[in-house]
Amino acid sequence: MLHFSNTKVIMICAVVLASIFFALPNMIPSSMRQNFPTWWKPMNLGLDLRGGSYLLMEVDTSAIVKEQLADLEETSRSALREAKIAYRTIRSTEDSVYVTVNDAKDRDAARASIATAAVGMEVDSEGDDRIHIVVADRVKRERQNAAINQSLEIVRRRIDEFGTTEPSIQRQGTDRIMVELPGVGDPTRVKTLLGQTAKMNFYLLEPNQASSDPRDLPPGTMLVPGGGELTGQNFVVRRKVEVSGERLVDSQPSFQEGSPVVSFRFDTAGGRRFGQVTSANVGQRLAILLDNKVISAPVLEGPIVGGSGIIRGGFTTQTANDLALLLRAGALPAPLLFLEERTIGPGLGADSIAKGATAAFVGGGLVVVFMIIAYHTFGLFAVFGQIFHMLTLFAFLSIVGGTLTLPGIAGVVLSLGIAVDANVLIYERMREEYAAGKTLINALTQGFQNAFATIFDSNLTTFLAAAILYFLGTGPVRGFAVTLAVGIATSMFSAVMITRMQVWMWYRAGKRTTLPV
Asked: Where does CATH 3.30.1360.200 sit in the chain?
């Protein structure tokens, strides 16, 4: 039956009022929204509407291969040391490592030791005294894929720490990352933050090493340049990582004696290791390396326990903030190479909004004219239903913090057409039933009931298409899919519930005997 209970009427009216309330911020100028609560906010506008910056980056997978080979060198060195096998050289090429042992009789034992330590690597013998170690293709692919996924997550953390509203961060292709920053007109600082690998580790300086000539370096050491206030200096650093920066769990900018510093805190294992290192090396210098540059080399005046410490490096307030941000977000497993950068001005975004709004108004206006001419009073009911459909759609996007893009506007307009199509199906079914001799109340009831299955099926297939576009598409395609899918759901509510309630109220308002369609 067409009948609506009072409870159902109250529920529908509550949804309509809630939609108006949550859609209202989209109609209020931004200057008047400053003191609004955070939960009562408008939709976010995408890059093409609001203006902002677009960055396309590539993960430098060649650096990952170099790091794999460096790890393989150290693994081979440790394996031979544990097996007490003497060797002459361990050197790496572009894609493999060569080990030359002193005695040819130790070759097979050395090969077995390395194969045990270097799991997943291809270890072969070459000649009487040389071993060839190659990183397996499967291992190489797995590590590169893991590094790209990790880079994507760290880029997202850094952007979130930076405070950009509604950024879009997506993987593109096999080794690229696309970042859209609405409202950011100058991405220089963002590029600086994203371009730093921020790999920080703690090493010990080699004591009593005055010469920085690479030919005079003791075994197991390396020459590292200084960075920041130590630029221009070179430091002889032991190769062994005493405490890894991966153990850091927090980092904050602060002040000490009036100067900006960066405080850090390790996890439990890192704090324990840091305490052991500082206790055993009192009086020596601890080198803090950031991206293979020494940013600080303090003398350990005593044990540092408790798992926390301070980095001094001649920071300004902004550089201290940036370093703390980078350390909190984590280190990139490989450098990022910037391939493309675009800046879209707010004027272009405003022009896109104006054109999109014009298209929406023209399309909506034509629909209104058609519905009123074709269906008279019921056409007005359909128009009011579509107004509430739009309000409900904008309210939903505002509540969930959705982002409206130019393709999203196209999805809104398309959902409006789909909603009107549902009303057309209902009204045409009413005409058929009324022409077949049914009473008015039966024609109205049968129109809604019999058309519902067709409406549901057609909307379901469109919804599935939108879902496929969302999961398989990227960027603008997903924006279109979101607004289309949400629009389908709200159009079902407006066409079936709101329009039906208006028809029911019209019928109850007087003794109706003629179908005004």
From this structure: 196-330
Percent pLDDT > 90 in the chain is 3
Domain(s) of CATH 3.30.1240.20: residues in the chain: 61-140
pLDDT score recorded for residue 66 = 82
Residues in contact with 207: Cβ distance below 8 Å, sequence separation at least 6, in sequence order: 284, 285
Among 3.90.209.20, 3.30.70.3450, 3.30.1360.200, 3.20.20.70, what is the CATH number of 196-330? 3.30.1360.200
CATH 1.20.58.100 given to domain 6-49+348-508: no
Q: How would you label 67-99 residue by residue, b for 16+ Cβ within 10 Å and e otherwise? A: ebbeebbebbbebbeeeebebeebebeeebbbb
Ramachandran area for residue 250 (φ above 0: left; ψ -120 to 50: alpha; else beta): beta
Q: How confident is the model at residue 349 (pLDDT cuts 50, 70, 90)?
A: low
10 Å CB burial of residue 389 (0-12, 13-18, 19+) is: buried
| 91/84 Cα distance (integer angstroms) | 19
Report how far residue 396's alpha carbon sits from residue 407's, in angstroms, rounded to the nearest whole number.
18
CA distance 148 to 152: 6
State pLDDT tens for residues 288-306: 888 888 888 888 888 888 8
* CA–CA distance, 215 with 207 (Å, rounded to integer): 17
Residue 198 CB partners (closer than 8 Å, separation 6+)? 290, 291, 326, 327, 329, 330, 331, 332
Residue 266: count of CB within 10 angstroms of its CB: 24
pTM exceeds 0.70 for this model: no
288 phi and psi angles, rounded to 5 deg: -105, 115
CA–CA distance, 66 with 473 (Å, rounded to integer): 34
What CATH code would you report for 61-140?
Answer: 3.30.1240.20
Task: State the pLDDT confidence band at 21, using cuts at 50, 70 and 90.
Answer: very high
- In the chain, residues under CATH classification 1.20.1640.10 are 6-49+348-508
152-186 pLDDT per residue, tens: 888 888 887 766 556 778 888 888 898 888 777 77
% of the chain exceeding 70 in pLDDT = 95
